[in-house]
Design goal:
The protein is an alpha+beta fold and 755 residues long. 30% of the residues lie in helices and 21% in strands.
Amino acid sequence: MKIKNAESQIEIVWDTSGIPHVFAKNIADAYRGMGYVSGKERLWQTHQSTAYANCEAAALLGEKFLAQDAIQRACNVHGKRTGLPASPGDWIVDAYLDGINSTVEQLDEVPPEFENAGATPRIFTREDVAARYRFTSWFQHKSWTEKLTIGRLMATHGIDYFRNNLLHFSTDDERVVGELAPALKDVSTIPFVLAYPEAAHLVTSGSNNWAVQGRLSKSGKPIIATDPHQPHTIPNTFLYIHLHAPGWDVFGAAFPGVPYFMMGTTRDVSWGLTTGFIDSYDVYIEKLESGNEYLYDGQRNLLTERTETIPIKNLSDRNISIRYTGHGPLLEDLCLELGLDAKKPQGYGTSLHWALADVPTSAGALAELPLAKSSEEFGEKLFENDVCPLVNNIICVDQGDNLHRFIATTMEARTSVTGSVPLPGWDSRYTFKRSTRDELTVEVNPSAGYSLTANNDTMGETGPYYIHNFPTHSARADRISQILNSKEKFEVTDFKEAQLDLKDLRAEAVLSDLLPLIEESNEPKVKKAVSILSDWDYVASSDSTAACIFYPFMDQMWSRKFMRKVLSDDFLRVIPGAAPGLNRFDVKHFLHPDSPWNPHKKEMVLVITECLRQVMDSLESEFGENMSEWEWGKIHQVQFSHRLAKKSTWAHMKVEAQPSGGSPTTLAMAMHLGPGPGRAEGEQLPYRVFHGPAFRWIVDMADPYHVHFVIAGGNGGSPSSKFATNQFQSWMDGEYLTVSFIREELEVDETWQFD
């Protein structure tokens, strides 16, 4: 093993669970070892992710990624137009790059993933690391699609139809919708493809994270639990690694190719995070004049124009012309450049502003987090000059029994308006200053003794401005809160049970409102369904008959069908699948006393009844009439594999289908895709669980040297790895492993070491 610029001998060993441990004589060399392991285990994953971040996906993977590259270049996701500032953490980045680039420079042959893609390994730079941070922020939540959707619906049908479903909506928002109505009524849906170019129903990432202070723990020290939700893939989304230098240790999860521990623990601090569903986008309706001008505060300004040359695999380069107002690129123009027919409202255009577009990101922005001695210092290292290139809620605890929660992001500090709807681009009142670190340090030693986040609205009506406009349903957060209020003292075992919890509070809330509407139905199949659902304990276990009925029913999207029936608007068919805010219409929203939906209660009951009848028919088709055979886990199963598992090189990198409980709104989160019961063909599963906890992780700061931990699959990534799926069954069975910082305690796998 030769790592350039190493200052001393570096020892790297793998334990029998597949976790690499790097033992070095200084921190820089520890990071060199981390880079080396990343290159050995996840070189292709790093190469591909870097191509995404640098807006070069089409060059690597083909024309289908052209739209993705184009919108990212338009919004400066790669950061090339804002430059690369120096950072106090650059020394860590440089050390890490020494390690990963050493693996590239010492390759004896092209790895099979590269050969399969017709690609060549490359050297990585600081610019690549910074671009990766920015891309992580960019892809997690596309709130701008929801703003366009709700703006058009309100302008077309009236604000009152949708007001009660929005988390935040102000009198200023109402005035803005009225002002923009002529343009909003004709807003095109075509730009949605720019948000999710590969899949119209792409699901955003999520996570659970909570911590208690010492007064709520049996050990007297903070305990923290984290389980980030990611697509179930081989290799795993994260690389898990332990670094050691004299007087210092860190273990955690990092994206391969960057020296940033997204979740981690040291001797002094421990932190976890969730996707914040932070509203870091603004959509502007622009007044356009004479073809190449836009209005701003009564003045005509020339549109600027930039041509991006985008390489495409096996095709000629494409020149894409992008036109900008002061807020950002014009979406309809970009769509037309891509051959998409996105007509602009007469005299108007739609521009997109991303909070990081004009804000530079350093390579070392997040590298020094594991050097923090306290949760307060952690927060100081999380922001550089009030800038953080993330969109996450982060909870950090320390040995001094302190707990801090941060909104780790850079966003617009909006005033008057909430940000839930498009804004007038010609009015400077809607050009906002940026957020500051002090504004985003949102909890310090809370009075409750705990903090939690689960992709919910973590702020409510508090704070200087609205941060979460379109979060996911609060059911998981509410369940965590229930658990944390259920007893006086907690230990690690309690948190393990919580991470495996299958109680679905959303199901409870939905059915408490819905069942009374149909309990008098005379239809035999509906009566059967009502009887079973009425007796359900709302636990989404794999053997549950009620869950087998409820979740396919929810997949019927009865609320959308009802809205289309009342409004006769086909636009409701194209609500983005990854729009959590707009997919939360429930009975209570429609039956609000002041809602114009109220007169249509009869139609709603008919739609609900029809959807439920269809589900019962499909379950009979799947299982037969004997309802004792109807079990959620028989149609809802975990199955994942390497994307190239059909090729012999990767054929072993897969896990066979197994019954699974859970739902998107249980703590043991499980998100599914599939045709549904009675519709699967061949080897297709009715529902494949494709998204859930990438790992489960618990730390008691009374013993930070031992982390309770398990991976969904394994830690290996290379085709020859023995650790690609070795932890799957433990993860599936709710078991945990222990990762130790102590060299003498390690069970070293002598068969899996690099020369």
